[in-house]
Specification:
zinc-finger; zinc; globular; Znf_FYVE; Znf_FYVE-rel; zinc ion binding; alpha+beta; 6 helices; Herpes Virus-1; 2 domains
């Protein structure tokens, strides 16, 4: 069905409408062979809270953004290439139901659908797109993935030392390797995670020890950065501004993703729980309390429908 939709006028029209809804700040989504497979609203667990996001599933990328005017205008466009993605179902946890994790080398996060049926539909379509991409490109699935960040609200004390309580002065930090919320003293090291970025990023002292022990001595000087206390304050402050704050990150419509956001691996030291989120969202939009997931009514276009949800 996707092959049939590639050259259809309906597919071209849908993609053009999505581009219009993101406006001039969004990247072009038109590409030879690209098909809009489906769209709908999902609840995304962000660093500080759960928020509704409009998602667009293409046959090669997953796009989402903030909802400014429903079905009319979106901003903060994010693009995740599907060839590097794997998804993992989450068990229901109290009010948080029908969720799964979207995991990739650059960015990982949890999302929730409004019903088990919607969850099943989304996961089936995403998995089908991933399988088709890998089969057609002869590429192998990514082996290293970004950690899904623990939301700030899940940690009142440092998850590493279990002693430091977070306050307006004693701020939270996230380890880019495992996603844990840690204090400054327990995350005073930097390390280059090559699959994520060519710049050193903050990691907790446990992950730092594991990472540094895995690197040959001759390469350590290029991978490791000084302790927080001995490093330039301006350098560390700029790193926190880029990586710890809830800022928007874009990506390439051809498959690239910004290096901003959560960082880690597919084998985290601290196992993520269902409510874990990501670091890329701003604080100026809707917060969803537990048990109030939006009715999303997703639309998938690979079953012969010609309906366009956005008009």
């Amino acid at each position: 069905m996707v092959d049939r939709l590639v050259h259809s006028e309906a597919n071209h029209r849908r993609i053009a409408i999505v581009e219009q809804c993101f406006g001039s700040n969004g990247q072009s989504l038109t590409k030879t062979g690209r098909v809009l497979v489906g769209e709908g609203v999902l609840t995304k667990m962000c660093r500080k809270k759960a928020k509704p996001r409009q998602f667009f599933l293409f046959n090669d990328i997953l796009v989402y953004g903030n909802i400014v005017i429903d079905k009319r205008k979106y901003n903060k466009q994010h693009i995740v290439p599907l060839e590097d993605v794997k998804i993992q179902s989450l068990e229901n946890d109290g009010p948080w139901k029908n969720g799964w994790q979207v995991i990739s080398p650059k960015k990982s996060f949890a999302v929730y659908a409004a019903s088990p049926t919607e969850k099943s539909e989304w996961m089936a379509h995403i998995n089908k797109c991933i399988a088709d991409l890998l089969a057609n490109s002869n590429k192998r699935p990514a082996t290293e993935h970004a950690a899904v960040w623990v939301p700030d609200s899940e940690a009142q004390t440092c998850m590493h030392c279990l002693k430091v309580k977070f306050t307006p002065i004693q701020r939270r930090h996230h380890c880019r390797k495992c996603g844990a919320v840690v204090c400054g003293g327990c995350s005073n090291k930097k390390f280059i995670l090559s699959y994520q970025s060519d710049k050193p990023v903050r990691v907790c002292i446990t992950c730092y020890e594991v990472l540094s022990n895995s690197v040959p001595d001759k390469d350590k000087s290029s991978m490791i950065r000084p302790d927080y206390e001995s490093a330039s304050a301006s350098v560390w402050n700029s790193d926190e501004q880029l990586n710890d704050d809830d800022t928007a990150s874009g990506g390439s419509a051809d498959g690239g993703v910004s290096a901003r956001g959560g960082m880690g691996t597919s084998d985290p030291i601290i196992t993520p729980q269902p409510r874990y989120g990501s670091s890329d969202e701003e604080e100026d939009d809707i917060e969803l309390p537990p048990g109030s997931l939006p009715e999303s009514h997703p639309q998938f276009y690979d079953f012969g429908t010609t309906e366009v949800l956005i008009s």
